């Protein structure tokens, strides 16, 4: 049924060339793209739990928090202004990614990264020196524009620069950098939290990854694909020779030319992706990022310190707990790198989903036991430790399933003519729902109480069933042959016309394997 793996034919093209210095530098710049995104995700929760920050910018939240236990635990951080501080960034990134898609296409990937880096740097400086909420929010919007540009251009840059045999590893390398950014942010929050100016250091230090991506992109060459698409054939060929470290690039260059022509023949990739034969791709590019956010992961990533404080942890213990979940996140992402091409995407999605459901239900039960629906009570030390362990269990499950696969799967299932439209949908949907969760989580916690964890658990049940029935296995399938997979799927097969499948000769070279 929904499963089924593929063995690619042994004649899959391998081009000449080696891993050159250029490709390695591209990895480092990609890491910076992931770092700025991860740093933002990780920094805001810690900052919004710092007393010096709250008393300066959000005095009413600060007062409510200090008033003690007579009000519901679930509601003491509920402030739209406070959540707007966190989530405004993702709204800006959502709109910026649409502009970034255009800039990336017309002016190249490099200019897009450079612009993203500079705007992000301006945002970091503005936040570090902020004297009022307006400066904070404008700073966050600038950071968001930077993230929008980086998330659109860096993954594209990477997949165009990387030799094909490195593409999968590099893709999850981006997620790895995100998790490292989150962890570093957690450590920085922990280090500076007790200082009066701690929040300035936390927010201002975002300038470090910003300088890295800005300076890095000045020295980077543009990709051959991008140079070619802008009409400079000879320059593109020279660049390909340079990055592959060989003169023998004719075959790969021909592929680039074919791909560029094919993409040019399609009039309007937006109208194309809406055609029935692209229904599976459209559905996956929309639903995967949507589901990724409805795992509830950013409740933990943004608000772990606030959440742990709500559970009765002290200030330091709350920030330390965020560092612990950050470490688990990095470590489990590494496991995903090792497993993704062996166990396959489906196995990781299904196992991760089940593990998340179990953890979320147990967390809900523990919180209900301690605080009931009135939100009054205390959690014992032993129980709060158990909640921390369950949350680590949940984060690990996300980090080897929906975290990296949420970016990998949409990027590998689309044929070239709709690949960048698919990627733009993926980024935009991801940012839109990150914004929604970021903006409404504290209010949802206030109203749904411990039921919030059950709410997300229900969503994980839905998405796990979706994966089981609707996502075919794509491990080891060459990108150009992906339509074979869709064609054979029990449901999506009806949408794929015969002529959209790579020649019958090729399909016969691919044989089914037991799931
Ligand atoms: C998600 C982020 C999330 C992060 C956690 C990413 O894949 O897109 O929203 O915060 O993983 O590691």
From TrEMBL:
Membrane topology term: Multi-pass membrane protein
Location of the Major facilitator superfamily (MFS) profile domain: 26-475
Main localisation: membrane
Listed Pfam families: Sugar_tr
Top-level division of the source organism's lineage: Eukaryota
MF terms in GO: monosaccharide transmembrane transporter activity; symporter activity
Subcellular location: Membrane
TM helices/strands, residue ranges: 21-39, 81-104, 111-131, 170-193, 199-220, 282-306, 318-340, 352-372, 384-403, 424-444, 450-471
InterPro entries: MFS_dom, MFS_STP/MST-like_plant, MFS_sugar_transport-like, MFS_trans_sf, STP/PLT_plant, Sugar/inositol_transpt, Sugar_transporter_CS
Keyword Transmembrane helix belongs to the record: yes
One GO cellular component term: membrane
Keywords for the protein's UniProt record, in alphabetical order: Membrane, Sugar transport, Symport, Transmembrane, Transmembrane helix, Transport
Family: Belongs to the major facilitator superfamily. Sugar transporter (TC 2.A.1.1) family.
The protein's name: Major facilitator superfamily (MFS) profile domain-containing protein
Source species of the chain: Linum trigynum
